[in-house]
Design a protein that fits this description.
heterodimer, A: 263 residues, alpha/beta, six-stranded mixed beta sheet, four-stranded antiparallel beta sheet, 10 strands, globular, B: 291 residues, mainly alpha, MetI-like fold, 2 domains, two-stranded antiparallel ribbon, 11 helices
């Protein structure tokens, strides 16, 4: 196994997250059953599927939010760099710092842009003003928001437009310098231009970090995804490189979904 | 095509034209509002008109003489603030802690319902019962005597339900997404509560505390048995004190001096107005900073 990939053929081949025979239940309703999925380092793994297919539950299981907040019952195994998350091999706070998350609707906290961005780093113990300033600038640049807000960092984050708020949320996750970024339909409420900016940012980010992108928009999955997994009714139907899944899906259900026969 | 819905043409017209009901409704609502404001203004004006002419600099800065027939009410002002401060200082952490525990750490179970029911019952208990309880428990059993401490603790238990309920509502009204955001940024549950939930809930929590302050300032029955009715200036927590409302009650009840009674009432009403205005002003500034 190649542990330190260099740029070239091996990039994106090392496993970052592995999901083995994962089942997720809320009370008596099973939302995911028997899911196997390998997410490669420094790639964008898009997850598509109609509503109720379990995409969001998968995402919220990867950072254990499903267990902590939603009270889900989870069976199977999820590993991050080989460490078993469901067995608590990675402390929760550390996991959340290594695996960032962006929600479907922008969720800025009711405070200034600056304070939103330094929230995570401060909790992680970054105290010096210069360090925080540097994190704020670099994460805003990576989220392609720096030029729009650099002169008004002390303005309330709620005053930004929807697209800006979502990029702020991406920047906020990036301020912790995560290895993985989970995005749950990050462009669902946004206009095409904001969507484009976010997609550009994600493509650039995938050179350094692993991205799992849940999306309702198959075109978006085609535009930015390196691999695409198709989920249906709590099962993973197919997982393939993006070009193959969209041109020659191996499962008829994938074909039906992509050709708009349902969903 | 089914035609089960009645056609508009066949429906009978309303007995009263919508325009008329609209005018009547609006007038009634206006009248209710006007009556509420009117009663409030009348009470305040009544007290101030009778009391204000006797409120002088000396009245505010002197001790009473001759049982309150002459002199001022400085010890009563100090006593009132003292007792209220103790009540708020005790009730705020207790109430806030209970509210946080009920909303964040229990999932609406049996315990939550029992505590909430208890708090509601406590809110309905007449203040004189609190006074009696305070007298038996704090003053006698715990041997505190008539004191600022006994009065403050009694008031604390009296305003506790208000503080709990308002704080609970405020904490509950913080969007759950804020907590999730905090978790995804590496916060523990406690950090999420302290750094995200409480700042967002602060205006609501302060409203409860302000209501508590108002009740403490104006309470008579609960403090007359517990803080006492000494005319001397209270210095330590264990000194007896007479609050302004008790002073007013005794001056009026015993017919000692109506002008002094109304002057005391005027100071009390003004103090409540000033404290509320200041608190809401602070809250407004705080909310502006955070949104």
């Amino acid at each position: 196994m190649i542990d330190a990939p260099y740029r070239g053929a091996e990039v994106g081949e090392r496993t970052k997250i592995e999901v083995v025979d994962l089942s997720v239940r809320y009370g008596s309703s099973v939302v995911l059953r028997g899911v196997n999925l390998r997410i490669r380092e420094r790639s964008i793994h898009a997850i598509i599927g109609p509503a109720g297919s379990g995409k969001t539950s998968l995402l919220r299981t990867l950072n254990l939010l499903a267990i902590e907040v939603d009270g889900a019952r989870v069976d199977g195994a999820v590993t991050l760099d080989g460490k078993h998350l469901l067995l608590g091999e990675v402390p929760l706070a550390q996991l959340r710092r290594r695996v960032g998350m962006v929600f479907a609707s922008p969720q800025p906290l009711p405070r200034s842009i600056y304070e939103n961005l330094v929230f995570g780093p401060r909790l992680a113990g970054v105290r010096k003003r210069v360090d925080l300033d540097a994190l704020v600038e670099s994460s805003l640049r990576q989220a392609q928001l720096w030029d729009e807000v650099k002169d008004r960092l002390d303005v309330s984050a709620l005053k930004l437009s929807g697209g800006q708020q979502q990029r702020l949320c991406i920047a906020r996750a990036l301020a912790l310098q995560p290895e993985v970024l989970l995005l749950d339909e990050p462009c669902s409420g946004l206009d095409p231009i904001s969507t484009l900016k976010i997609e550009e940012a994600l493509t650039e980010l995938s050179e350094r970090i692993t991205i799992v992108l849940v999306t309702n928009n198959t075109k978006q999955a085609a535009r930015v995804g390196d691999r695409v997994a198709f989920f249906l009714l709590g099962e993973m139907v197919e997982d393939a490189p993006a070009d193959r899944l969209f041109t020659a899906p191996s499962d008829p259900r994938t074909n039906d979904y992509l050709s708009g026969r349902f969903g | 095509m089914s035609t089960t819905s009645p056609s508009l043409g066949r429906m009978s017209p309303p007995l009263v034209a919508p325009r008329v009901t609209q005018i009547v409704a609006k007038t009634l609502l206006w009248a209710a509002t006007a009556l509420t404001v009117g009663v409030l203004v009348f009470i305040v004006a009544f007290v101030l008109r009778r009391g204000l002419p006797y409120v002088t600099g000396d009245f505010l800065t002197e001790a009473p003489r001759d049982m309150g027939r002459a002199g001022g009410i400085l010890p009563m002002i100090v006593g009132t603030l003292y007792v209220t401060a103790v009540a708020v200082a005790v009730a705020t952490p207790l109430g806030l802690g209970t509210a946080i525990y009920l909303t964040e750490y229990t999932r609406g179970g049996f315990l939550t319902r029992v505590v909430r029911f208890g708090a509601e019952c406590l809110a309905g208990v007449p203040s004189i019962i609190f006074g009696l309880f305070g007298f038996v428990f704090f003053v006698i059993t715990l041997g505190m005597g008539w004191s600022v401490l006994a009065g403050g603790l009694t008031l604390a238990f009296m305003i506790l339900p208000t503080v709990i309920r308002t704080a609970e509502e405020a904490v509950k009204s913080v969007p759950p997404q804020y907590r999730e955001v905090a978790y995804t940024l590496g916060a523990s549950k406690w950090q999420a509560i302290v750094k995200v939930v409480l700042p967002s809930a602060l205006p609501g929590i302060l409203t409860g505390i302000i209501l508590g302050i108002g009740r403490s300032l104006s309470e008579t029955a609960a403090v007359i048995f517990t803080a006492g009715s000494s005319l001397k200036m209270p210095v330590s927590l264990f000194d007896p004190a007479r609050t302004m409302s008790v002073h007013f009650y005794l001056l009026a009840r015993e017919g000692i001096s109506m002008p002094k009674a109304y002057a005391t009432a005027a100071v009390l009403v003004l103090a409540i107005l000033v404290i509320n205005a200041t608190a809401y002003g602070l809250m407004h500034r705080f909310m502006k900073r955070f949104s």
